Fold these 3 entries.
Entry 1:
Amino acid sequence: MSDTFSSTVQCLCKKITLTADAIKPHIGACHCKTCRKWGGGPFMELNCGADVEVEGAEFLQIFDSSEWAERGFCNKCGTHLFYRLKGTQEHMVPVGLFSDDSNIEFGSQVFIDEKPAYYSFADDTEKLTGEELFAKFAPPE
């Protein structure tokens, strides 16, 4: 499996197109309460890096969802387009937007401590609590 791949995705109404050339082929699932509230379930994403080209930016709406991240969506059709880290500008794009999912695999789950009991994934993945996640990616002091 390649370390990264390129792809272009669109929202439902096709007003916004995202293009990225350094997409990591490992799905991450976030079980935090904010992600579940945003999408009705865990947020399943691919890290597309910081260099993401946006066509149709006039239709892009940004929601400042926390101190460290913001969420982008189409203001015409409502499609969730990304979760973006403010510090690194990395774009986490919903895996459902990608038409070719043949070369990706389920890699990790975060905020496992907030996952409700009514669902679980069978895949053996890396699992981090919220505290473990923040410790892993905290900038050095």
Entry 2:
Amino acid sequence: MTGPRSPVIRVFDCHIARERDGELEFLLLLRSSKKIYGGTWRMVGGKLEAGETAWAGCLRELAEETGLRPQRLLAVPYVNRFYEWKHDRINDIPVFVAVVQDGQDPQLDDEHRDFAWLSLDEAVKRLPWPGQREGMRAARALLLGDSELQPFMEIPLDS
């Protein structure tokens, strides 16, 4: 019998938002068919490199997968958590929201074959995982309703 397992942060979720005509839109990326989760819509995400913080990995993957540079990056007060039966582990996935300037579209890498800027309602309909949907809802709530919390959650981009 083994003892309790501590959660290890291996991956992250990064929602990308922009304001257009006074409304928030979220960017979703359609995975290439030859990649894991092929044919599904997702936000930016990825595995951390050795010694990398989750927020630094978020910025790295955002640049690699989209070429977008955020104006702001915030840690969302939500953790996407699910059990992965193949590895008998619980994944605790920190969630971030990157705010980009309107008028920018992603430059897709080979992991993705399409993108869409969508309202929250349309975006959550496309996300397959419940934790991803809840993370996006929490990101929107942070950006629109929790202005007192934002200073504590904002990650300085010159760090």
Entry 3:
Amino acid sequence: MRILRANRSRTALFCCAAILLAASIGCDRGTKPGQIGKPAAIFALDDGHASVDLNKLHGQVIVLNFWATWCAPCVEELPSLLNLQHTLPQVHVVAISTDTDPATYLSFIQRHHVDVLSVRDGTDRTNGLYGSFRYPETYIIDKSGLVRRKFIGPQEWTNPEIVDYLKKLAR
């Protein structure tokens, strides 16, 4: 009986340690990301099929999404981003893909009917400007060019709270 209790205690201790470790290496949502309230990093990007210049979108609300075709949570989130763009045309969804293979990226874009502004940056230069490395990561940039929010992980972009927030920014 003592051995069984000792094994249970060790198992419980191991599980608690694993949970704490997972929480410590995960997203730190308890602190304010450094970019919030600061000017968004400006970039221009042209992948030969599409281009974006963040400077030219100044005065617009931007949902800047870093993603990749190989990222399952990114693919899961994509329909929601597309719906957001259709629901709120006054908000500009800009999707920056980190795919390195142009053929894979273009095939994915066509197959999934991606009709938001999506540009491939296979060099990771653009997401590096934002310190993004956990895809998908999304930044909300207001009309004055300030980063207002950062989301890590897939979101339901047509959630009423998010839509209301973006509508208020777009006014």
